[in-house]
Design goal:
Blueprint: E1 3-10, H1 16-25, E2 30-34, H2 47-52, H3 54-72, H4 88-113, E3 116-125, E4 129-134, E5 139-149, E6 153-155, E7 168-169, H5 171-174, E8 183-187, H6 191-202, E9 206-211, H7 222-235, E10 238-241, E11 244-251, E12 254-261, E13 264-270, E14 272-275, E15 279-281, E16 314-316, H8 327-341, E17 355-357, E18 362-367, H9 370-375, E19 380-386, H10 391-395, E20 402-408, E21 414-421, H11 424-436, H12 441-445, H13 456-465
Parallel strand pairs: 1-2, 1-5, 2-3, 5-16, 7-14, 8-9, 8-14, 9-10
Antiparallel strand pairs: 3-4, 4-5, 6-15, 11-12, 12-13, 17-18, 18-21, 19-20, 20-21
Helix pairs in contact: 1-4, 1-8, 3-4, 3-6
The protein binds flavin-adenine dinucleotide.
Residues 10-16, 33-36, 47-49, 52-54, 57, 121-122, 150-153, 171, 192, 282, 285-286, 318-320, 325-328, 330, 358 line the site of flavin-adenine dinucleotide (FAD).
Family: Belongs to the class-I pyridine nucleotide-disulfide oxidoreductase family.
Catalytic activity: N(6)-[(R)-dihydrolipoyl]-L-lysyl-[protein] + NAD(+) = N(6)-[(R)-lipoyl]-L-lysyl-[protein] + NADH + H(+)
Domain FAD/NAD(P)-binding: 5-334
């Protein structure tokens, strides 16, 4: 007799594993299938985020941030020390250990919650059936009342720069360098390109970022984007906008990239090249021809507002469906779907999904940008407050950037927040909470903020929306 579950989840990234845990918590018998095999040849859960995404990139960002601080900031505090050195293999090993701990943590959570972990590949067949093939190649058919597809995404490759083993790499390869490349090229000035470019720039690489778009961070509020470009350039990133890569040639252990910009054809040579031009939904081998699940024209699984596909009982979440490719969006969709399967009326507020770029300083945003509101013809007020006027930021010599809050001109309801500065990701979360509760800027202005905290910048920016900031000259 074939195995039967209330829910089978295909994909164990932050979308799939969270969905599986919530399903089990809601009393549904649940299995989660994932085919990821780690560097040691072991099947693991956690997906892109834990294995080669959010977590390892932040581990390297944190190590290199500390290195940079030791180099450049400690002396300001009166701290002197001997020569500061970075042992790159040790840094990478620390990152690997964190990844291992976290992926093992998912396995522990599965056990604790009673989720059946199935290591191998899942394929959706018609009639809510799943073909599971384990890593030894043995297949079986599993029946499910509901199936959640959470197969994530993979890096986009571009024809001018095919990946080579060790010279032209994607984001995964860029987490594995064993020494600091002298000349590093990054194609794509998006979140991943800027984060990985920052990691290696801090360790001494000469980093050139080639971006095809004519504006920098074009989806980010442009006041923040402008400040980010200024600060990242000051740190040493050579960001070239309007630079469209057309070809590459690997010679020995270097690569020469050809690109086109407003002045014509250019050539530049690097020791390593990171291709970070975006990610695409991953559905290879996932669907039988008669599964009943449809895709949109860009290859995303087609779902409605509640992540239900066109096939009854089949749901899809995370990077493999429309919306921002973010771990927390994937997880919350997982929770929503689990709750809906259990008969609850859960929903997700897609208007209030924060996004963070973990450069230094961080760049965080939620809601509408000023450019979007302008284009929609909406009237709004803006409040801005610089970190340079915040006592706590001054005490830690972390004064770059600002908080910008945008509120509806008529109702004062907060429409968006855009922050570049220390702990921007955490500060932005305060506005996420406020927006979720429909707060006005005045609501935040009337709240008590502890002094001296970096959070006071949020308070002052909210006050500034209605021209009443206190510490503004
Ligand atoms: P994934 O995490 O991609 O997981 C999908 C899983 O499905 C994989 O484990 C895969 O093995 C499995 N799978 C696929 N097909 C099958 C199949 N047929 N059978 C069995 N298993 C299958 N997001 C953030 O929010 N914050 C960040 O700071 C951040 N940093 C990032 C840094 C980098 C370098 C990268 C690459 C990404 C980063 N992201 C970040 C994006 C984040 O990793 C993704 O948005 C998130 O992992 C998506 O989750 P998911 O569950 O949809 O898919």
């Amino acid at each position: 007799m074939s195995k039967q579950f209330d829910v089978v989840v295909i994909g164990g990234g932050p979308g799939g594993y969270v969905a599986a845990i919530r399903c089990a918590q809601l009393g549904l018998s649940t299995a989660c299938i994932d085919k990821w095999v780690n560097k040691e040849g072991k099947g693991v859960f956690g997906g892109t985020c834990l294995n080669v995404g959010c977590i390892p990139s932040k581990a390297l960002l944190d190590s290199t941030h500390k290195y940079e601080e030791a180099h450049e900031k400690f002396a300001l505090h009166g701290i002197t020390m001997g020569e500061v050195k970075m042992d790159v293999p040790a840094m990478v090993q620390r990152k690997d250990q964190i990844v291992k701990n976290l992926t093992m943590g998912v396995a522990t959570l599965f056990k604790a919650n009673g989720v059946t972990a199935l290591e191998g590949t899942g394929k959706l067949l018609a009639g809510r059936k799943v073909e599971f093939t384990n890593h030894a190649g043995v297949s079986e058919i599993i029946e499910a009342e509901n199936v959640i597809l959470a197969t994530g995404s993979v890096p986009v490759e571009i024809p001018p720069t095919p990946l080579t083993d060790n010279i032209i790499v994607d984001s995964t390869g860029a987490l594995e360098f064993t020494e600091v490349p002298k000349r590093l090229g990054v194609i794509g000035a998006g979140v991943i390109g800027l984060e990985l470019g920052s990691v290696w720039n801090r360790l001494g690489s000469e980093v050139v970022v080639l971006e095809a778009q004519d504006s920098f961070l074009h989806t980010v509020d442009q006041a923040v984007a402008k400040e980010a470009k200024k600060l990242l350039t000051k740190q040493g990133l050579d960001i070239r906008i309007g630079a469209r890569v057309t070809g590459s040639e690997v010679n020995g252990d270097e690569v020469t990239v050809t690109y086109q910009d407003s002045e014509g054809e250019q050539k530049i040579t690097f020791d390593k090249l990171i291709v970070a031009v975006g990610r695409r939904p991953y559905t290879e081998g996932l669907l039988a021809g008669d599964s009943g699940v449809n895709m949109d024209e860009r290859g995303f699984l087609f779902v409605n507002h509640y992540c239900s596909t066109d096939a009854p009982g089949i749901w899809a979440i995370g990077d493999v469906v429309r919306g921002p490719m973010l771990a927390h969006k994937a997880s919350e969709e997982g929770v929503m779907v689990a709750e809906r399967i259990a008969g609850h009326k859960a929903q997700l507020n897609y208007d209030v999904v924060p996004s963070v770029i973990y450069t230094s300083p961080e760049i965080a945003s939620v809601g509408h940008t000023e450019e979007q509101l302008k284009a929609n013809g909406e009237s709004y007020n803006v409040g801005m407050f610089p970190f340079a006027a915040n006592g706590r930021a001054m005490a830690s010599t972390d004064t770059e950037g600002f908080v910008k809050i945008i509120a509806d001109a008529e109702t004062d309801r907060i429409l968006g927040a855009h922050i570049i500065g220390p702990n921007a990701g955490d500060l932005c979360q305060q506005i996420v909470i406020a927006m979720e509760f429909g707060s006005s800027a005045e609501d935040i202005g009337m709240m008590v903020f502890a002094h001296p905290t970096i959070s006071e910048t949020v308070h002052e920016a909210a006050l500034a929306v209605n021209n009443s900031a206190i510490h503004k000259a």
